[in-house]
Amino acid sequence: MTPTSTQTTKRLDPAQLATSALRLADAEGLEALTIRRLAQLHDVTPMAIYRHFADKDDLLAAVGDRILADIALPEPTDEPWEAQLHAVLAAFVAALRPHPKVAGLTLYRILICPEGLAMGERTMELLTQGGFSVDDAAEVGRQSLCGLITLVTTEPGANEDTDPIAREDALRAKRASLSALSPHRYPLITSAADTLICPASTDRYYALGINLAVAGIRGVLADLKDS
Amino acid sequence: MTPTSTQTTKRLDPAQLATSALRLADAEGLEALTIRRLAQLHDVTPMAIYRHFADKDDLLAAVGDRILADIALPEPTDEPWEAQLHAVLAAFVAALRPHPKVAGLTLYRILICPEGLAMGERTMELLTQGGFSVDDAAEVGRQSLCGLITLVTTEPGANEDTDPIAREDALRAKRASLSALSPHRYPLITSAADTLICPASTDRYYALGINLAVAGIRGVLADLKDS
DNA sequence: ACGGTAGGTCTACGTTGTAAACTTGTCAAC
DNA sequence: GTTGACAAGTTTACAACGTAGACCTACCGT
């Protein structure tokens, strides 16, 4: 008999709305995530949504937060800071990977929602521990995390095209466009066409992206220490 | 008397359309770049645009190409590959920087328009010269270039808000949101708040971003050579 | 002189986000 | 109990968007 258990009036829950919005966007792309579609999924009038979200941006923010909430931040260990940083970044990527079409929504939410803040703080902790000044840690951390978001949103195959037929078409078109190139003028691009269109292994793709970020941080740190 | 000089009928030029579309988007943001607005700028009916572009995506692609066309690729020198790569990436960023609000349009055009292809080929050239396999060069190059695009699109201050009053408001809101945080729970984030909101120097921001990319590449190369 | 065509116009449709005014089920207080 | 008050959902409406389709019309090659 709690007020949330049995109701005669319909009841929408912002959290449930955000999750089903996320599901919808995952399945059919961000452009399919429309107030009307979401309302329809809950057998409700479009305007009902606005009782729980100020406007569409507010809804998208909630979806972003929903994604960030899944970050499973690793516990601090006694490993060197670089290894721990790697683990934190990997955890971030792992949370984003299931949602390549909408991972971009997290960009402006990291410094707002608690899980994002926790990750940001932990990242800066490790960076300062490694030798960065607080301000440098802020800039380096910011850029690295942004880069990882991009890594996910530009994951080959993250494109729309829910049904495999259109997807296959898009792939073929891309392949055709690349194979139409002159191998004389663009020898390397044409010979790497397959990799450029779709990397051999997605896991490897992500592993490389994270390594690139960590290696960049280490390298920049060395440069800064010199000067 | 060339057919393009004097005309009684109005004449639209796709290239001019793309440039004024870019100007519009630069000034007021991507969401202000609408078929109707663009048509109005040329004293023409909205549908006239469609005589020159298949649809809006086609127009956006042209805008992306327009940006990439400004890449001033440096001549090959006898410097080490890393220095030359740095110069190429810097040239890329320099082309994007004037257009932070729309730089994302270049993402899917690099491997299509000639200037993008030239840069891609040159990048892969330098990477293979450094010791990467062709496939690794493709993946590393792809991720680095994507990362640099993100660097520009997430440049603090790239937000919309054409007039300085709304811009100042947004900044204040962000500052407030960060300074509302508990310095006890988030000591590093709160103490770096200013830097996180807006880095001290934009030039430094970009220099750091490019260095991060190059250092990452060098580091990953070393890792690959070990195994 | 004349037909074809490239370029621009007009009208119209469906979809989107959302403002404003309404209904209605629920609960606290008298 | 009756009575507001309020939170949640509905209804209606509007402006702006991308764009399809039918039209006009000035130009150019023959």
Mind explaining what this structure looks like?
The structure is a homodimer of 227-residue chains. By secondary structure, chain A is mainly alpha-helical. The first copy, chain A, has helices spanning 14-28, 35-41, 56-68, 81-96, 114-130, 134-153, 164-179, 187-191, 193-197, 202-226. The termini of chain A are far apart. In chain A, 39% of the residues are buried. The model of chain A is unreliable at 1-8 (pLDDT under 50). Chains A and B meet through helix 5, helix 6, helix 8 and helix 10 of A and helix 5, helix 6, helix 8 and helix 10 of B. Chain A binds a DNA duplex (30 and 30 nucleotides) through loops.
Supply the key terms.
homodimer, mainly alpha, 10 helices, 227 residues, DNA-binding, 61% helix
Short description, anyone?
2 copies of one chain form a homodimer. The first copy, chain A, has helices spanning 14-28, 35-41, 56-68, 81-96, 114-130, 134-153, 164-179, 187-191, 193-197, 202-226.
Reconstruct the topology from this structure.
The structure is a homodimer of 227-residue chains.
Chain A: H1 14-28, H2 35-41, H3 56-68, H4 81-96, H5 114-130, H6 134-153, H7 164-179, H8 187-191, H9 193-197, H10 202-226
Helix pairs in contact in A: 1-3, 4-5, 4-6, 4-10, 5-6, 6-10
The structure holds a DNA duplex (30 and 30 nucleotides).
